[in-house]
């Protein structure tokens, strides 16, 4: 069986490590290059001991000459870096980005939310925001695949079908999301060193979190509805996982049973989104280590409202797992390959 040669840039971060752990088990993938900066010359096992049983190349510095030897570049780099790499792609090489470089369709929005000038504006049209359950086979038409952020994944999956079907009001949506600290990257320990990271809960990015732009863009694009939502993220004293609690107002003639039915119908052919029975209490522990998103629709004391709970592993379904899903779709592999 011929294998796709891949290069992973940004290999030593939490997402990069998780991506390697998935790809080493993918039968159609050969990890040809692992790239880094300060880690050049080291073995990836310095950062993840569980990879010792696999024969992997030592970390090298990325240079454009490597592109001609590979089929896919995975980038798990700081924002702005994948844009630079996108400029040196050849006609056969696919870029799958796990950062935010190609998530937004307008360079002006990227500047607004990320405070960075986009360095490859001409490549935005060659890219697709690829949430696998929503975009599906559309990725086959693009050479640059932008994987969604972790918070938006946990939010868009439950909301999009319900807004599209006009079962909930598209205004006054309240989104309360809590993430493990791995979502902030390896620098989280320095950034929050005075916050008692392991024993406290921290709120951040009120009204200004970058993922606001992503959530709004995709929900509007696929539902054609004007939206009003409030999104507040929190950092929790756990390593991985996201739990999003979403408060919505029901439209007339809607009910939590109709919400639950529609979500089950929408995702019935998508093995990684599992809609549970009504009023199921969910935990991040239900999905840790998997590419699953669990969703539960719950009643409130008010008949015209509902609470939707969504849980994912931010490093897999919210990161590396989606990258592998998109790889599988792009190359016509079974959707679950390398993910079970």
Largest β-sheet summary: 7 strands, parallel
Strand content: 15-25%
Radius of gyration: 20 Å
The geometry reads as: globular
Q: Stretches where pLDDT falls below 50 for ≥5 residues?
A: none
Q: What's the helix-strand series?
A: EHEEEHEHEHEHEHEHEEHEEEH
Number of helices: 9
Distance between the termini: 20 Å
- The helix/strand class is alpha/beta
Mean pLDDT over the full residue set: 95
Helix percentage: 25-40%
Number of strands: 14
Strand order in space, largest sheet = 3-2-1-4-5-7-6
Report on this model:
The structure is a single chain. The chain is an alpha/beta fold and 340 residues long. It is 25% helix and 21% strand. It contains nine helices and 14 strands. The chain has helices spanning 14-23, 81-86, 107-114, 132-135, 150-164, 188-191, 211-223, 256-266, 316-330, and strands at residues 4-9, 29-35, 59-60, 72-75, 94-97, 127-129, 144-146, 173-180, 202-203, 229-236, 242-249, 273-275, 293-299, 305-312. Strands 3-2-1-4-5-7-6 form a seven-stranded parallel β-sheet. The protein has a seven-stranded mixed β-sheet with strand order 9-10-8-11-14-13-12. A hairpin with a 5-residue loop joins strand 13 and strand 14 (305-312). Helix 1 packs across helix 9 and helix 5 (150-164) packs parallel to helix 7. The longest helix is centred in the middle third of the chain and has 15 residues, at 150-164. The protein is globular and about 60 Å long. The mean pLDDT is 95.
Features of the shown structure:
alpha/beta, 7-stranded parallel beta sheet, 7-stranded mixed beta sheet
């Amino acid at each position: 069986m011929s294998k796709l040669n891949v290069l992973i840039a940004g290999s030593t971060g939490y997402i990069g490590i998780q991506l390697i752990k998935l790809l080493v088990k993918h039968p159609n993938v050969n990890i040809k290059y692992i790239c880094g900066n300060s880690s050049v010359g080291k073995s990836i096992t310095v950062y993840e001991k569980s990879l010792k049983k696999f024969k992997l190349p030592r970390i090298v510095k990325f240079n454009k000459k490597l592109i001609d030897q590979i089929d896919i570049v995975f980038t798990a780099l700081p924002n702005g870096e994948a844009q630079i790499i996108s400029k040196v792609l050849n006609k056969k090489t696919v870029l799958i980005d796990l950062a935010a470089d190609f998530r937004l369709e307008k360079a002006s929005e990227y500047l607004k939310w990320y405070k960075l000038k986009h360095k490859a504006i001409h490549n935005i049209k060659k890219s697709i925001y690829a949430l696998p359950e929503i975009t599906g086979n559309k990725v086959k038409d693009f050479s640059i695949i932008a994987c969604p952020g972790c918070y938006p994944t946990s939010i868009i999956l439950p909301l999009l079908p319900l807004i599209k079907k006009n079962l909930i009001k598209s205004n006054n949506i309240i989104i309360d999301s809590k993430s493990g600290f791995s979502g902030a990257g390896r620098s989280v320990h320095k950034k929050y060193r005075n916050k008692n990271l392991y024993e406290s809960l921290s709120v951040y990015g009120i009204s200004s979190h970058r993922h606001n732009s992503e959530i709004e863009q995709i929900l509007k694009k696929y539902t054609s509805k004007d939206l009003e939502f409030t999104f507040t993220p929190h950092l929790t004293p756990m390593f991985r996982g996201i739990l999003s609690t979403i408060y919505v107002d029901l439209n007339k003639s809607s009910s939590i049973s109709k919400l639950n039915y529609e979500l089950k119908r929408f995702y019935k052919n998508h093995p990684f989104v599992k809609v549970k029975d009504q009023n199921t209490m969910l935990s991040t522990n239900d999905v840790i280590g998997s590419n699953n998103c669990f969703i539960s629709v719950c009643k409130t004391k008010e008949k015209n409202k509902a609470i939707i709970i969504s849980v994912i592993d931010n490093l897999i379904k919210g990161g590396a797992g989606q990258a592998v899903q998109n790889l599988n779709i792009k190359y016509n592999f079974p959707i679950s390959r390398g993910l079970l």
